[in-house]
Predict the structure.
Amino acid sequence: MSTLSTHLLDRPRRCGRPAPAPSTPRPAADLPTAERVNWLRAGVLGANDGIVSVAATVVGVAGAATGVSTLAVAGVAALVAGALSMAAGEYVSVSSQRDAERVLRDHGLRDAEEGLTNPWHAALASLLAFVAGGVVPLLVVLAPWGGGRIAATFAAVVLALVVTGTVSARLGGAPASRAVLRNVVGGSIAMLVTYGIGALVGLAV
């Protein structure tokens, strides 16, 4: 071995810094299964959509009208319509995936022991998750905050998106910071845009 090679190999030790340990792959048992990923996708998407959709709706309406009854009607309508739409969309999407899995199995390209994805499970997970997420901004915006109604809703939504981003990252084995940042930025933009549009509509009307 040359003197230069020896110097380069010994450099981390001479500088007082230990050489970085080689990364070890995660055990196969710790990796998320296809079924777990499907449930995770349906649940997280449903919760995030519920939080952001209902929050954007009530905040947008609040920009144009401040009546509690108006906010309640808009929020409940957004909650019911969004939950049913999310469930129907997830059922159609997973049914298409199930059809493709059947074709792969019939042609021997998929292990017969692997279970097929269940569209009803995915639809139910999306519906329940949407309702659970959408209830958060609905309850907050209807609370007696007075002039702080919008600020309180915004803060509650940001906190809820931090929670869903963290949970989804932990379950999927991904870094939490990126998931949380995506959730918070996307939800904040949605609320700001809809509030601005609602305020403009309110002035025009």
